[in-house]
Design a protein that fits this description.
Elements (H helix, E strand, L loop, with lengths): L1 E5 L7 E5 H9 L15 H17 L4 H11 L6 H17 L5 H6 L1
Length: 109
């Protein structure tokens, strides 16, 4: 399934996000601890995410799904703070609709 996020405040730029890309974000826990306690996503948060992903790609090379996420979303020219905020909101809603398989069982063990 494809989702569309707006990447600028004017609403003139959009980006398509797939379930596979959202699953990659979950698999690598890319948003965990990303945003400070103030909850504000600015350009420093975008850069922090990009640095984290670069380090992950260097540590674990050859992951096609991570490369796809980088090329088509995280390092896209339109991905700025506004777009990342929209992506984080999309991801939060997506997680509710797509619970991680087996997570409930693992927590109870």
């Amino acid at each position: 399934m494809k989702y569309e996020i707006t990447t600028n405040a004017k609403g003139s730029r959009q980006m398509d996000i797939t379930d596979e890309q959202l699953e990659t974000i979950r698999k690598h826990a890319l948003f965990e601890g990303l945003v400070d306690s103030n909850g504000i996503i600015d350009e420093t948060v975008v850069e922090k995410l990009r640095l984290n992903v670069r380090a992950l790609m260097e540590a674990q090379p050859g992951q096609a799904e991570l490369l796809d996420l980088c090329q088509n979303v995280l390092f896209h020219d339109n991905m700025k703070a506004y777009g990342l905020n929209q992506l984080v909101e999309l991801y939060a809603g997506w997680q509710k609709d797509h619970p991680e398989p087996g997570k409930e069982n693992a927590a109870g063990e």
